[in-house]
Every structure is written in structure tokens, then in C-alpha cells.
Amino acid sequence: MHIVLLVFTLLGALGMFLYGMTLMSESLQKAAGDRLRSFLASMTSTPFKQVLTGTAITTLVQSSSATTVMVVSFVNAGLITLANAVGVIMGANVGTIPTIWITSFGFSMDISVISLPLMAIGFVMMSSKTAQSKNIGGFIIGFAMLFLGLSLMKENAEAILSDEYRDAMMAFFGYFTGYGFGSVLIFLLVGAVLTMVLQASSATMAITMLLATTGLIGFDLAAAMVIGENIGTTITANMAASVGNTSAKRAAMAHTVYNVFGAIWVLVLYHPFLKLVGFTVSAIGLSNPLSVNLSDPSAQMSLLFGIAILHTMFKLINTLILVWFIPSIVKTVTMIVKAPEGEEEEVFRLKYITGGLLSTAELSLDEAKQEITYFAELCQKGYGYIRQAINEQNPEKFAELNKKLVKYEDITDRIEFEIASYLNEVSNGDLSERSDYRIKAMYKIIGELESLGDSGEAIGRILQRKNAHNKVFDEDMLSKLNLMLDTVQTAYDAMLENLRKPYEDVNDITNAQNAEDAINSCRNRLREEHIANIENDSYNYQTGVYYMDVLAELERIGDFIINVSQAEEAVR
After folding, report:
1. Domain shared by 330 and 440, yes or no
2. Per-residue buried b or exposed e for 121-156, using 16+ beta carbons within 10 Å of the residue's own CB
3. Fewest CB within 10 angstroms: 106, 142, 181, 369, which?
């Protein structure tokens, strides 16, 4: 019964370590979410910047999975290209190096003595009214829990491996350690599976360090687990991309290619590579981890530093090799992940949001932003059918155009519903105040865009009634309506220009305001001319009613359009 309690206590310590790491990562992402997005979107012009960007963000958030999922979501949203994403993913892998060193220091030094005081500081900060202080407090608590979990894991492992249980544990692991290179492959697989299950390579790395420092496995098998962990960590990005578009799936596959390639060359050069690691550890004044004696006081330090140095060298060498072959990696993943036939033809389907959240709530808003811009582009395409329908005199051709107006009204209804459903999912997560404001603005924008579809169908109904009563717009009426159509088109162009900009760049919507003023001015002038024409009996009164109804609906379209730009500007 005692051993069962010790095992569950060990698992609880692992859970504390995992939760601490997660809390650290999520708190930092909330604190710097918008800045991380801007940094990632802008710092990807060269391979060097791409790698540096991925390294910096992963070092900050202490999670390569978070960075990789962020990159996948950006590719899905079209914010960065697949080629740029590959470089950032390489940097994300390099950025895991500090995490491993933190873990090794956590095992080699008893930092847990300051964990509880740190938690006290964190809880004080979390009681603050400002979101930033709460996020920083969450990071401090997560940091403290991480080291406390490491300390408890070490203590309980030592208790389990007391004289009473050591022989049984040694016999169990000894069964898998006598197959030469086959044992290397077995422990590589163990490392990969553990990481897939725990969804955190840092937790598997902590387990590896625990097994090595307690003498259950040798350094050569610990190294195999480290390589396996790098393969296992790719599952997170591939799970995230499973609901993404083709580009997102290719970005996730690039992450897999990077780590699998690294595992292959390390396995081919396994023993020379381990000797290089051992030589490096010896060069800094510690025992060679390949031949360490656990009775030596510095043995644990040698093993811990050996694992950290191995991980560091693996990541750096792999990146230095592959950074020159980014175009080849892009071609490879493009061949592996084929685009579905007709993927771009289904205009009624969402283009960027394809099934669920790809990342944290904070980062998911970028997909929504791109989807809303695409929504607006579809509305503009529908507006082209409005122009054709107004000018079409042939009843059969008009009937076809009217069907398209009805279809596009249905499209706008469905897209509004799907984006709103996605925003509802996002809003269930922890959001910064700015992101909460962005979501409210997005609800406003999609409502206005849906109204554009309604107006298109309304104009179709007006024209249907006109045709049913055998009324025809004369050349003068059509000329004036086309003038109004051109004015509204200018407003559409201004709206799309503003939507395509990052929120930070929407400093001025004068273009949209000028277009709105022009629409109102045109409407007022045409209304006055209409009243004069009615008084002079220049055209049939009933025809004039239909003419003014169309004019009024076009002016309403202008109102919806300016509302979109105003909502976009308000987020800044």
C-alpha cells in the first residue's frame, strides 16, 4: 500500500509540474498576446529573422507547442506564408533549450525553498484589479509550482527507489536495456509516446532526467528518450492543424519533417554524437555522463547537464542544417499534404475558420479577422450582381441574376452564423480586455455584412415587382442609378482597404467617411431631381416609386458599409 501511495504522490508531483508549466505559458500569452501576434507577423522577412522570432517567442512563453500552434493558426489565417512558417517552427524548436536548462537546474538545485514565498507574491499580484498584474501573478505562481513539482518528483522517486523497491525497479528496466541498439529504439518510442500522452515534452524530459539520475537507465537510453520526445511533440501541432486548411496542415507537417529528420541523422551517428556530448560535458569540468559513477557526488550534475547539452546540440545542429533547405521542406510537405479538389470553389464555405479553435482564445481572433475580410470580399462580389440586375432588361437574364442575389443572401446568413459561433467559442476562453473589445467589434461587423446580403435580395424583389408591372427604367434613370452604384462601389473599396489593415494601422477612416458623404450627397441630389421630374410628368409615377426604392436601398448599403469601418476603427 505504501508503494501505491508513493507512486500516486509522484504522479501528483508530475501534475503540479505540468500545471505550473501550463500556467506560466498561458499567463505570458495573455500578458503579451497582441504584441506576440504583431511580432510574429512582422519579423518573418528572412530565414534568420524567422528562426530568431520562433526562438524568442518560445523562450518567452516556455512552450514550443504554443508557438507552433500559433504559427499554424497564422498560416491558416493567411497572415504568414508556409515558407516563413517553416523558419519560425525551427526557431520554436531552438527556443525549447532554455526550458530544458531550467528543468535541469530544478533537479540539481533545491529551488523549492523559495516556491511558497513566490506563490505568496503571485497571489498578491493576482488580487490586483489590472489584468496585466493578474497575468504576471499567474506566471509567478506557475513558475513556483514548476519547481515545487520538480522537487516533489525527486523526493518521491528517491523514496520509491529505496532498498525495498530498488531491485524490483532495476529488474523491470533491466529487461528493456539488454538489446543493444534495439533498446535505443525502444526508449526512443517510449519518449515519443509519453510526450504524445502528456502533451508536454518538458514533462517527459523531467521524467527522463529522473530515470537517469536514479540509475534506472543509462545516459545512452536517456538520450534516446530525448530524441523520441522531439518526435512526440509534433502531435500537438498536427492535432491543431487537423481542423485547419491545407496550408495549416502543411505547416504542421513541416514541424514533423524537421524533428523526424533530426531523429534520423542522430540515430545514424548515434554513438559519435553521444561521444561529442560526453566530451563537451567533460570539457566544462564534470564527469563524462557515458561512464559516470552514481556514487560520485557530481554524477547527478553530469547526467543532468549531459541531457541538457544533448538537447541543445541536437536542436542547434538540426536547425543549422535545415535552415538552408526551407524551400525543399516546403516542396516536401506540399507533396505529402495534397489540397482537396475544388477547395477554392466552394464560396459558401468558410475559408480560414474550418472547424474549431486552432490555438488559445487570444490567438484565434486572427482567423476570425481574416474570415471577416473574406466575408466582405464575398459581399462585394454579390454587389456586382446587384449592378448587373439593375441594368439588365432581358427578363430571363434578370431571373438568373436574381437567383444569384437570393443565393448570396443565403451565403451571408450562413457565414455570419458560422463566424458568430466561432466567436462564441473564442469568448469562452480567458481574454484580455482588448481582445474582448475586438470580439464585440467583430459581432458588429458581421451583422453589418449580413445586412449587405439582405439589401441585395431586397433590390432583387423591387426589380421583380417592377418587371411584373411591365415598368422599365429609361436611360436617364439607369444613368443616375449607375452613378449611385459607382459611388457605393467607392465605399466598398474603402471598407475593404480598412478591413485588410492590421488594427494598429486603422488610424484614419477618412476614405470611408468621404465615400459615405458622397453617397448621401448623390442620394439627396437624385431625390430632388426625382421630385422635379414627378411634378413635370417626366416619367411614370409607379416607375418612379421603384426607382426611388432602389436608390434608397443603395443608400442603406452605404450605411452598412460605413458602420463596418467605424467598428474597425474603434478597436484601435
Report:
1. no
2. ebeebbeeeebeebbbbbbbbbbbbbbbbbbbbbbb
3. 181
Same domain, 322 and 419: no
The string of pLDDT tens digits covering residues 196-238 is: 766 667 777 777 887 787 777 888 888 888 888 888 878 767 7
Whether the pLDDT of residue 310 is over 70: the answer is yes
Q: Find the helix or strand (DSSP H, E) in which 126 lies.
A: helix 115-126
Q: What is the DSSP string of 515-529?
A: HHHHHHHHHHHHHHH
302 HSE (CA, 13 A, CB side)? 24
Q: Considering the domain boundaries, does residue 190 fall inside one?
A: yes
Q: Does residue 172 lie within any of the structural domains? A: no
pTM equals: 0.55
3-state secondary structure 264-298: HHHHHCHHHHHHHHHHHHHHCCCCCHHHCCCCCCC
Looking at the 3D structure of the chain, how many domains does it have? Answer: 2
Give the count of alpha carbons within 13 A of 212, CB side only.
Answer: 33
Residue 53 CA to its chain's centroid (Å): 15
Question: pLDDT averaged over the chain?
Answer: 78
d(CA 56, CA 61): 9
Q: What is the pLDDT of residues 106-120, one digit of tens each?
A: 655 555 566 777 778
Q: How confident is the model at residue 458 (pLDDT cuts 50, 70, 90)?
A: very high
Structure-model confidence comparison of residues 298 and 414, the more confident one: 414
CB 281 within 8 A of CB 289: yes
Asked whether the predicted pLDDT for residue 470 surpasses 60, the reply is yes
Give the cell for residue 293: 559513477
Judge if 78 and 10 occupy the same domain: yes
For residues 197 and 238, state if they share a domain. Answer: yes
Domain CATH number, residue 395: 1.20.58.220
Query: Helices (H), strands (E): how many in the chain?
Result: 22, 0
- Which one, of 23, 126, 67, 30, lies nearest residue 435 by Cα? 30
